[in-house]
Each structure stands twice: as structure tokens, then as C-alpha cells.
Write a structure and sequence with these properties.
This protein is mainly α. The protein is built from 13 helices and two strands; from the N terminus they run αααααβαβααααααα.
Length: 341
């Protein structure tokens, strides 16, 4: 029974919260605002940029340097070179990563030697090297290896067992040489990215898939790689953007159908340096911005379901249901998105 004579507890006064002041933050914002205003003012008022030269007309009767036909042709060449080089790099990189993780020591060592060589040599050196490989051979073709040596063993001079061949100067020059230099170099970096993605998957998932009767190829294709993509995609997107910029290196091969080569040609003809370089910067910014947007959606696609009740375990259960088998015991997850067995 409460004592009615006891006075009630006094209601506490409202807390007068004083917001934490951040003078340093406001000072940083002010400094950044001033620097931004100075930068914009320089872009607008400095006549040396010659925006009309870049966007509207760089010569009487011609469009701005960004939109002339040779530059647009070089832009198409840059995009094509990026796509083909990345295709070579991704496909070959996956193969090399699998070889590196193989139990076969010979395959593993060959993969290691490949990554060691192409990661050690700068891409500029590789581009120039591949542009001069035609010095080594007159023709390159497919056919019986060591055909001339075998012919000499049987007393046949100049035995030609090539099914198809082309002149080396036609094959290893220009676009093909630049594409091979960039693509083979990219494969070494992609191999390391793919290897890191595969190794991030819990080995228990592969063991569970093998227990269900899947072959090693099926385990890799249906269990490991789909999960590893979440780790592989972000650095791969970074490699694509880097490849866009590295295509400018093939100007030393030379590859004439390339953006920077065409802009350099205009610079040499008109003696206008800064606006031409600004035009190159703007095109590279546009291409890389589009690729970054694409990377965002690809990352979001491969991150679906991550951390939601064991994505891999669900996949194994789905495979077991398709084969009419019994799903593995749904034990606790042993890692991010992983499934215990």
C-alpha cells in the first residue's frame, strides 16, 4: 500500500541538448567551396582552353576537335580494343587461375610463370615488343610443328606442312599486336583476381557438391564461380576502366585507329596542345563514367541474396532437388554467404 503522504517524485527537467559544433568541418567546406569556385572561374574565363576549338569548330567548315571523323573513328577503335583485350584477358585469366589452383604441379608452375612474366613487364614495353615481333618470322601459320626439321631427317628440303599461314608483318602489326599485348598482360592480372575469388569460397561447399555426385567442372561452374563473382566483379570493373586508359599505350605500336593517336595527329598538325589534351580527357571521362555505371548494376546483380540464409546452401538444395536426391544437412554457415556441411 502506498503512502499517500509521500510526495511524488519530481519530474526531471527537459534536457537542453546542445548540438556538437564542428568548426573544422565548416572550415573544410568553406575551403573546398572557394577552391571549386576558383576552378570553375578558371574554366570559364581562361581563353587558353579554347572551348570553341573543342566543341564547335577547330577549323573553318569543320566541327569541334572532339567530333571530327578521325577522332570518332579513333574512339570506336579504343572501345573495340578495350572489349577485345578484356575478352582475351578474362577468358585466359580464368583458365590460368584454374591451372594455378590445380593439383598438377606442372600446370600450376606454368600458370605461375605466365603471371610472373606478364606482371613484371610494363605494358608500354609489351606493346612495343609485340609491334616488332614480326622481325622474328616471315610467316606465321598452323600445321605440323618442326616441319622443316622433320623434312631434313627424311632428305626433303624445304618441307612445308603448314595448312594456313599469313605474313608476320601483316598479322603482328597495328591493331592485332596492340590487342595481344594488352590482352595477354590483362590475363595475368585477371588470373590473380579470379584465383582470389575462388579461394574466398569455403572449401566445404565444394566437398558437399562432390558428395552429391557433381564433377569438378560442375562444382566449379555451378557452385564456386557464381559465388566468387561477388568478389571478382569489383576488381574486374576496375581493370576494365584501367584498360580504357591503357589503350593509349598502343599509339607506340602504332595503332592508328585509336583515340589518343588521332588527337595527337591533330595536335601535331595544328600546333594546338592544351585544347586537344582536354578533348582527350573529356572522352576518357565519358567512357569511364559509363563503365562505372555498368559496374554498379553488375555488382548489384551478383550481390543479390548475399548474407541471406546461406545462398550456397540453397543452391545445393536446388541441385539435389533436381536430381531427386537428399539435400545436405543445413548446418550453420561457416563464412560470408557460405554453407556448412
Amino acid at each position: 500500500m502506498s503512502d499517500q503522504n509521500t510526495p511524488g517524485r519530481a519530474r526531471p527537467e527537459a534536457i537542453k541538448a546542445v548540438p556538437v559544433r564542428h568548426p573544422g568541418r565548416w572550415l573544410a567546406i568553406a575551403v573546398l567551396a572557394v577552391l571549386t569556385a576558383m576552378f570553375v572561374h578558371m574554366l570559364v574565363t581562361n581563353d587558353q582552353f579554347r572551348w570553341s576549338f573543342i566543341f564547335s569548330s577547330y577549323e573553318p567548315g569543320k566541327r569541334g576537335v572532339m567530333f571530327t571523323e578521325p577522332v570518332l573513328e579513333g574512339l570506336r577503335g579504343t572501345i573495340l580494343l578495350t572489349i577485345t583485350s578484356m575478352l582475351i584477358g578474362v577468358v585466359l585469366g580464368v583458365v590460368i587461375a584454374i591451372m594455378r589452383l590445380s593439383d598438377n604441379p606442372i600446370l600450376s608452375w606454368v600458370a605461375w610463370l605466365y603471371t610472373w612474366f606478364f606482371r613484371a613487364v610494363p605494358r608500354l614495353v609489351l606493346a612495343i615488343l609485340f609491334g616488332n615481333l614480326n622481325i622474328l618470322w616471315d610467316r606465321i601459320g598452323f600445321g605440323l610443328p618442326f616441319d622443316q626439321q622433320i623434312g631434313k631427317l627424311f632428305g626433303i628440303d624445304d618441307l612445308n606442312a603448314q595448312f594456313y599461314s599469313v605474313k608476320a608483318s601483316d598479322l603482328l602489326a597495328g591493331f592485332v599486336a596492340g590487342m595481344l599485348a594488352l590482352g595477354l598482360s590483362e590475363a595475368a592480372y585477371m588470373a590473380e583476381i579470379v584465383r582470389a575469388g575462388i579461394q574466398s569460397i569455403d572449401p566445404g561447399q565444394s566437398e558437399a557438391a562432390v558428395a552429391l555426385g557433381l564433377s569438378r567442372g560442375q562444382v566449379l561452374r555451378r557452385v564456386v564461380l557464381p559465388q566468387a563473382m561477388r568478389v571478382i566483379v569489383p576488381p574486374t570493373g576496375n581493370e576494365v576502366i584501367a584498360m580504357v586508359k591503357d589503350t593509349s599505350l598502343v599509339a607506340f605500336v602504332p595503332v592508328t585507329y585509336e583515340l589518343f593517336f588521332q588527337l595527337n595527329a591533330i595536335k601535331a598538325r595544328t600546333f594546338v596542345v592544351l585544347p586537344v589534351l582536354v578533348a582527350a580527357v573529356i572522352w576518357y571521362l565519358i567512357i569511364c563514367s559509363v563503365l562505372m555505371v555498368a559496374q554498379f548494376f553488375v555488382e548489384r546483380h551478383f550481390s543479390k541474396g548475399y548474407g541471406a540464409a546461406g545462398r550456397a546452401r540453397q543452391k545445393l538444395q536446388g541441385i539435389a532437388a533436381e536430381q531427386g536426391g537428399v539435400a545436405p544437412y543445413p548446418g550453420p554457415t561457416s563464412g560470408p554467404g557460405g554453407a556448412g556441411t
